[in-house]
Amino acid sequence: QDNSFEQFIINYCNEKLQQIFIELTLKEEQEEYIREGIEWTHIEYFNNAVICDLIENNQTGILAMLDEECLRPGTVTDDTFLEKLNQVCATHQHFESRLSKCSRFLNDTSLPHSCFRIQHYAGKVMYQVEGFVDKNNDLLYRDLSQAMWKANHSLIKALFPEGNPAKLNLKRPPTAGSQFKASVATLMKNLQTKNPNYIRCIKPNDKKAAHVFNEALVCHQIRYLGLLENVRVRRAGYAFRQPYEPCLERYKMLCKQTWPHWRGPARAGVEVLFNELGFPEEEFSFGRSKIFIRNPRTLFKLEDLRKQRLEDLATLIGKIYRGWKCRTRFLLMKKCQIVIASWYRRYA
């Protein structure tokens, strides 16, 4: 119920993770159809980049203003930090405060004067400003670091490398918010180089109890995890896509014209294959480099046909092998019989 600086930076990380989820699923999904030349009607979704910008913008972001307050000479308190937020973010659509000049919050008794509220992608969260400045400073004074570095224990010395007089740095150490922001940026950069798979966990109740299903709580999570938009994009789009070369290689045994070898472009081979199988035209589309299959049932049908064809091919191979083995044995026995008979006639 009471959220402070710690919950604020945790929610900031959640916003960044939601942003990369949007980038890699909803946005990338729809842009791929455009790149491949597939006819597509754009589906609107909420992009939380505006919330991330509210928090991390280098000039007007909440973390930047918090750092500015921590570095500012003179009397600095949590109240002066809130005043600064009210001046800079008063007109932002996702920022709310009783002390801001925006008239719609002046009579909002649910929002105390010492708090501000951010409308995150998962709902509104209210933060108590008390302790924000002190927690963001998180300073360890140099004399304490130098004293710990002088300890005889190697582990303690290793934990405080900034106390080494040879590496004395007179610059002010980074704030907790700046360090966390840099860590999140590194995490995002690392995730963007990967091909992540998402597992969305739905909490059925707040009591951690078995066999208790809170419908309102589940609907809230589904709505704010972006699952509705993701399902809409998936249902309107194509369930499966694959480059032409591996698709032809996997399913070419289903068509006599492409089996065992197709002499020509992979796309032409896939077109011949799908026309031969007789799937409805609305079930697939040919992109510039990939085949798109709309319904999972079509893919399951392809896999079933392939499985049956592999069984038929295995039976054919076994039949040919057994025939070859029997024929070879018969010819060997015939040759032996001729040799034996010829020697017997010579003897007789």
UniProtKB/TrEMBL annotation:
Pfam families: Myosin_head. The keyword Nucleus does not apply. One of its GO terms (molecular function) is ATP binding. Keywords: Actin-binding, ATP-binding, Calmodulin-binding, Motor protein, Myosin, Nucleotide-binding, Repeat. PROSITE patterns: MYOSIN_MOTOR. One of its GO terms (biological process) is actin filament organization. Residues 1-307 form the Myosin motor domain. It comes from the Eukaryota. InterPro entries: Kinesin_motor_dom_sf, Myosin_head_motor_dom-like, P-loop_NTPase. One of its GO terms (cellular component) is brush border. SUPFAM superfamilies: P-loop containing nucleoside triphosphate hydrolases (SSF52540). Residues 184-206 are annotated as: Actin-binding. The keyword Nucleotide-binding applies. Belongs to the TRAFAC class myosin-kinesin ATPase superfamily. Myosin family. This is MYO1B protein. The lineage of its organism: Eukaryota, Metazoa, Chordata, Craniata, Vertebrata. The gene is Myo1b.
